[in-house]
Predict the structure.
Amino acid sequence: MTDLESAKFEIKELLESQPLGVLATQNRGQPYTSLVAIASSDDLRSLFFATTRSTRKFANLSGDSRVAMLVDNRSNEVSDFRWAKAVTAIGEAEELEPQKSKKPLAIYLTKHPHLEDFVSSPSCAFLRIQGSTYYLVTRFQNVMEIKPTS
């Protein structure tokens, strides 16, 4: 397996194993972060999350769709300095229309069946981040940049 294939495998494994990610948005240059339940497409081209339209994160996204999503497997132990992995996805978020979101929504609800009522609510927005770049960090300082299309 090449380094690129190995990195993509690690990213996919991390995204599949972790239920939550930290979404970073911004409003006029002021960063804002939120915990969100996440799911990813098999090809790593998309990440999915849901939020109500009344949230600060949704308001921020309405003004600027550029986002970063951090997903990690830390255990808050000293061993994390050697073994924890983190991936940051950089991309743009867009709300998916219901008729275009059947497959992404199925991916999301397979991972988070307990959120079905939440995502079915009229006040909920279902969003996709199209990741243009991933940054995988292992062993606390090894960083690889990966494009989903490469």
In short: The beta strands are 20-27, 30-37, 39-40, 46-52, 66-72, 85-95, 124-138, 142-146. Residues 30 and 60 are 10 Å apart (CA to CA). The two ends are 15 Å apart (CA to CA). The chain has a mean pLDDT of 92.
